[in-house]
Design brief:
Layout (H helix, E strand, L loop, with lengths): L12 H9 L8 H14 L4 H6 L1 H7 L5 H5 L3 H9 L7 H21 L2 H7 L6 E2 L13 H12 L7 H10 L3 E2 L6 H9 L2
Parallel strand pairs: 1-2
Helix pairs in contact: 2-7, 2-10, 7-8, 9-10
Length: 192
């Protein structure tokens, strides 16, 4: 008997694994949060499948999302990134990742952890939604609007409300699994 899932992973094995193992699971590890922030920024204008298929390449290219190292990238490393066919070679997004790493480090310094800051923006608890279909899931919410504005005020780039909502979904700040999906109940239980 096959499990009932959300419709978006389709038959793509990588998407199914991401859906089943990661999407919506509350994340409190700063490096993992930064990874999602970077990947969601690179996703802008592209499909998540494209980014997921390049995820390991992104990890290698961006020093396993070590914000301290990324914040120190210079011209030579930027040239290497822009020549790396294994990632999305978008000059604006590469430069945004470097400046976002510096902003991320500032947030860590101010709040002790990026986790404390970003979860504080959503009240510290995952929102449990009850969507019946994929069409009901919003692209952004008042919470993602506030997060976007706060991140921008702190110097982050490529953090529009839609990107922030995708980040919130990935990091488990919202449970957007459809109610008929087997993961909906599991994610709800994780959050209690």
């Amino acid at each position: 008997m096959s499990l009932k899932r959300c419709g978006w992973p389709g038959n793509d094995e990588l998407m199914i694994a991401y859906h089943d193992e990661e999407w919506g699971v509350p994340v409190h590890d700063d490096r993992k949060l930064f990874e999602f922030l970077v990947l969601d920024a690179f996703q802008a204008g592209l499909s998540w499948s494209t980014i997921l298929n390049k995820r390991e390449n992104f990890r290698q290219a961006f020093d396993n999302f070590d914000a301290t190292r990324i914040a120190g990238y210079k011209k030579r490393k930027i040239s290497q990134l822009l020549a790396d066919a294994g990632i999305v070679r978008n000059r604006l997004k590469v430069h945004a990742t470097i400046s976002n790493a510096a902003a991320f480090l500032q947030v860590q310094k101010e709040f002790g952890a990026f986790d404390a800051y970003v979860w504080g923006l959503v009240g510290g608890e995952p929102r449990q939604n009850s969507w019946k279909t994929l069409k009901q899931i919003p692209a952004n919410t008042p919470d993602s609007d506030r997060m976007s504005q706060d991140l921008k005020d702190r110097g982050f780039k490529f953090v529009g409300s839609t990107i922030c909502y995708a980040f919130m979904q990935a990091a488990g700040m919202v449970n957007d699994h459809e109610v008929g999906c087997y993961r909906h109940r599991q994610i709800t239980s994780l959050s209690q």
